[in-house]
């Protein structure tokens, strides 16, 4: 997977532009209200969303693409970026919150479970999680070869998992789920185009 992402970041630079997702702003407000001081962003890319958090919290980004990390160091020098896999524990400290944008749907089931478990291991008891991922209401759901239930190779060589609400909740079993919902994300690419995706989000708290 890192070859795919390295290639894209090398060719397209800041693929989704410089504007953060509105979900990052929603998460920032919630984290502020909850007294959060530190935030982990797994699969941080070039820091499009970490910048929202590094402006007010201690922010850590975990990213496996060297190309993305080069862009991130320039775009968001306030975040501590760690080169490595978000599927493994990378921090030697526990954070108050995790914000994870459109990374969970990139994996097959075993790895999705591993990503959530790694995030929980890096969160303090009572810490907050805010995750987004592709929704089963997105038009790409059901397109191409089915690799696992709900997981499709929707473009050649590229697959994603499309979450129903129940499926998303199931991935966070063992946490206190505070809120779930859907929204349409409009992404403007660095090369002038725009795409829309239907996403789900989940907000949860680890048990104390
Ligand atoms: C769809 S992009 C989302 C980027 C970022 N969250 C954002 O909002 O701009 C997925 C990102 O996850 C990264 N990624 C994929 N698998 C990873 C892994 N196992 N560990 C760390 N990063 C990973 C990719 O390199 C890419 O930057």
The value of Rg in angstroms is 16 Å
Strand order of the largest sheet: 3-2-1-4-5-10-9
Broad CATH class: Alpha Beta
Report the end-to-end length measured between terminal Cα atoms: 35 Å
Order of helices and strands: HHEHEHEEHEEEEHEE
User: What is the overall silhouette?
Assistant: globular
Beta content: 25-35%
Small molecules (ligands, ions, cofactors) in the structure: S-adenosylmethionine
How many domains make up the 3D coordinates? Answer: 1
- Mean of pLDDT: 96
Which fold does the CATH topology refer to? Answer: Rossmann fold
Tell me the total number of β-strands: 10
Helix content: 25-40%
Biggest sheet overview: 7 strands, mixed
Describe this structure in words.
- By secondary structure, this protein is α/β, with parallel strands linked by helices.
- The chain is built from six helices and ten strands.
- It has helices at 2-12, 22-33, 50-54, 66-75, 109-121, 165-171; strands at residues 38-42, 58-63, 80-83, 95-101, 123-134, 145-148, 151-155, 158-161, 176-188, 194-205.
- Strand 9 (176-188) and strand 10 form a beta hairpin.
- The radius of gyration is 16 Å and the shape is globular.
- The structure holds S-adenosylmethionine.
- S-adenosylmethionine is lined by residues 1, 5, 16, 43-45, 48-49, 62-65, 68, 85-87, 101-103, 106.
């Amino acid at each position: 997977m890192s070859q795919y992402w390295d290639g894209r970041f090398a060719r397209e630079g800041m693929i989704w532009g410089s504007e953060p997702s509105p979900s990052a702003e929603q998460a920032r407000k919630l984290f502020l209200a909850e007294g959060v001081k530190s935030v982990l962003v797994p699969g941080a890319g070039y820091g499009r969303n970490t910048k929202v958090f590094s402006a007010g919290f201690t922010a850590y980004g975990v990213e496996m693409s060297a190309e993305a990390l080069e862009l991130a160091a320039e775009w968001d020098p306030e975040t501590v970026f760690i080169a490595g896999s978000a599927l493994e524990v990378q921090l030697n400290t526990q954070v108050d919150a995790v914000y994870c944008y459109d990374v969970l749907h990139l994996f097959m089931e075993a790895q999705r479970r591993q990503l959530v478990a790694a995030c929980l291991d890096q969160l303090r008891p009572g810490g907050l999680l805010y995750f987004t991922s592709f929704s089963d209401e997105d038009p790409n759901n059901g397109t191409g070869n089915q690799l696992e239930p709900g997981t499709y190779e929707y473009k050649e060589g590229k697959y994603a998992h499309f979450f129903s609400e129940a499926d998303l909740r199931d991935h966070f079993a063992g946490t206190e789920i505070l809120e779930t919902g859907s929204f349409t994300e409009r992404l403007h690419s660095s090369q002038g185009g725009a795409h829309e995706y239907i996403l789900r989000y989940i907000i949860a708290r680890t048990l104390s």
